[in-house]
């Protein structure tokens, strides 16, 4: 089996998770993943020492695949260098998601879009990836027309500082100390914050909410898809959840939806509410599959074209690291690298 020289730009939570997924899935890495960041240093990652080199325009010669888990401006700055070196760039930032020349891919949703890549492939926003993992199989069967979504996003979705602040606030609350509020706009412990990313002052949606619409349209090749979203930060460590109201062009029953999703790669149906079985972030944490449940007919309608559904998925895995590595796997299997 051929082995591939793999680089990684960024060694935060997502970058660390990418190395773990490469290792766990036995991706054929030639030697060791070459890690790049803002400065040279030795870094302990998952019990192994990596010599981290500065990420520069001369870093990528000889590499086959470069995973980007860093900032948007870094991805923009280094894109041409990666492509010039002949490597495939798989980027987790928002830099290229709406670039018409860059495929935006979840392999279980639109793997075929990899075929027209020009050296760069974008990872979608984690909430979009989690939603489409469960919704795309239904869309392919019954044609999705409209989505109304509410997302409940974990503290770690804001990175290591967000998770650290939640943990610190919990300690401070137990000890009766004033709470530290830096990573979020307000106290997160004992609270919910309906504010993720910046507000668009033309319509008062946040950029996080607009990503859901724009990215879903692109990935499903459905430019007229109607989608409205409210994104909420919740005081849990890891894994995002979403409440989805779905409207289809054709009739669909909960039984049909469960049958479709039971056969879908990357989805696990957890839908036995009388016995307390439904998707929860605790159960989705550190799991590859998106959990889908609470599937029921929308009783606000007079037809059978509407469903309600609840999903939970690990945003660091399904929404980021796992998706990036699966893209690399599909590039290999399709002979594109």
Notes on the protein architecture:
The protein has helices spanning 13-24, 72-84, 107-110, 126-142, 160-175, 207-220, 254-262, 281-284, 317-333, and strands spanning 6-9, 34-37, 41-45, 48-54, 65-68, 88-91, 120-122, 144-153, 226-233, 240-248, 267-269, 290-297, 306-313. The protein is of the alpha/beta class and 337 residues long. It has 2 domains: 6-124 and 320-333, NAD(P)-binding Rossmann-like Domain (Rossmann fold), CATH 3.40.50; 128-314, Dihydrodipicolinate Reductase, domain 2. A 7-stranded mixed β-sheet has the order 3-4-2-1-5-6-7, with helices on both faces. A 6-stranded mixed β-sheet has the order 9-8-10-13-12-11. α1 packs across α9 (317-333) and α4 packs across α9 (317-333). It is globular. The mean pLDDT is 97.
């Amino acid at each position: 089996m051929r082995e591939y020289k793999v680089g990684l730009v960024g060694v935060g939570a997502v970058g660390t998770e990418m190395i773990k997924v490469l290792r766990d899935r036995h991706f054929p890495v030639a030697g060791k993943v070459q890690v790049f960041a803002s400065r040279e240093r030795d870094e302990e990652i998952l019990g192994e020492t990596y010599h981290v080199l500065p990420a520069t325009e001369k870093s990528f010669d000889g590499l086959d695949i470069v995973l980007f888990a860093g900032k948007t401006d870094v991805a923009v700055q280094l894109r041409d260098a990666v492509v010039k070196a002949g490597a495939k760039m798989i980027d987790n930032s928002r830099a290229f998601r709406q670039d018409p020349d860059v495929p935006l891919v979840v392999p279980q949703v639109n793997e075929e879009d990899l075929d027209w890549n020009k050296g760069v492939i974008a990872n979608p926003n984690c909430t979009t990836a989690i939603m489409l993992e469960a919704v795309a199989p239904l869309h392919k069967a019954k044609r999705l027309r409209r989505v109304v979504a509410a997302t409940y996003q974990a503290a770690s979705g804001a990175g290591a500082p967000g998770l650290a602040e939640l943990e610190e606030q919990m300690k401070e609350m137990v000890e009766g100390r004033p709470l530290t509020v830096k990573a979020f706009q307000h106290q997160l412990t004992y609270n919910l914050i309906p504010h993720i990313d910046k507000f668009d002052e033309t319509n008062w949606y946040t950029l996080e909410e607009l990503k859901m619409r724009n990215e879903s349209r692109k990935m499903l090749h459905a430019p007229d898809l109607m989608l409205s979203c409210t994104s909420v930060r919740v005081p849990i460590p890891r894994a995002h959840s979403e409440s989805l109201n779905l409207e289809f062009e054709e009739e669909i029953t909960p039984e049909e939806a469960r049958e479709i999703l039971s056969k879908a790669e990357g989805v696990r149906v957890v839908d036995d509410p009388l016995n307390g079985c439904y998707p929860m972030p605790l159960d989705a944490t550190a799991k590859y599959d998106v959990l889908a449940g609470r599937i029921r007919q929308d009783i606000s309608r007079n037809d059978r074209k509407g469903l309600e559904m609840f999903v939970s998925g690990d945003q660091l895995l399904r929404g980021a690291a796992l998706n990036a590595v699966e893209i690399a796997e599909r590039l290999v299997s399709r002979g594109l690298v």
